[in-house]
Amino acid sequence: MGTPTDELWRELTRLGIRPGDEVVVPSYGTPEAAEAVLLAGARPVFVDIDADTFCIDPAAVAEAITPRTAAVVAVHTFGHPADMAGLTALGRRHGVQIVGYGAQPEPAGEILRRQANAAYLDGKLRGVITPAVRQGMEHTYQQYVVRVPGNGRPDRDAFARALRSRGVVCHVPVQTPAHRTARFRRDLWLAQTERAADECLALPVDPAMSRRELQRVVSACNALGGLLQSAA
Fold this sequence. Notes:
alpha/beta, 8 helices
């Protein structure tokens, strides 16, 4: 079986990725894609994400392509699909391989229950920015990620602490973008990646959650109003 990183490495190897090649990957998310590129002997090139979907931005990919670019890893982030149609068209124009990564096979019933829970949260939450879904795409909500408005990381972290004190389990989905870690450090400024790392918070959306548990999440979030004035 192997790990997801091993599986992606094998796919890159099968596609002929070799030392000296560049492979475009998003910096926001897990470092698995960049790790797989290194395993293949190639160089990961980090680009920005789309502000709405948190997936790799095709426009940023287009700007990053060079004669050494051999592939793009399109990570499906938090359950929202990457723009495979746009990326595939871009790949054809430049002779670059497009590799989808991160879609997880799951029972349809679990996905439907998460989608129903997400729809409930979408309709009830106030003071946070709920997840966007691009037209024609299906979000499976592997994580339900909101943005906390305010002064970036300080307000987001204060909001998370307050939720936890009210019994709501939540977590920051990406603490540090890959290009800012010691292993992959690059001198880059990726505006949407930085913003997402500072503002985003994953709320519970497990398929087994009851309506009462969802109401508790809504009540806790709405009581805070998104921005904690005392933390400003």
